[in-house]
Amino acid sequence: MEFLSPLRYPGGKAKVADFVQCLIKENALLDGTYVEPYVGGGSVALSLLFNEYVSDIYINDK
């Protein structure tokens, strides 16, 4: 069975890392915990942690 995705290129969340950082900052969520159930390459989670937007990350991938 073929599945169609509404996304042009599924995966590769690195392009949204800046957007997520902006959301966290604008909503005063700094130093919180970021949870990502489908981490893939981990670019967003690691970017948030290394740039000190969050204090903890919990990641998982199947």
From TrEMBL:
GO biological process terms on file: DNA restriction-modification system; methylation; mismatch repair
Listed name of the protein: DNA adenine methylase
Gene3D superfamilies attached to this UniProt entry: Vaccinia Virus protein VP39
Keywords: Methyltransferase, S-adenosyl-L-methionine, Transferase
Pfam families: MethyltransfD12 (PF02086)
Keyword S-adenosyl-L-methionine: yes
Gene Ontology molecular-function annotations: S-adenosyl-L-methionine binding; sequence-specific DNA binding; site-specific DNA-methyltransferase (adenine-specific) activity
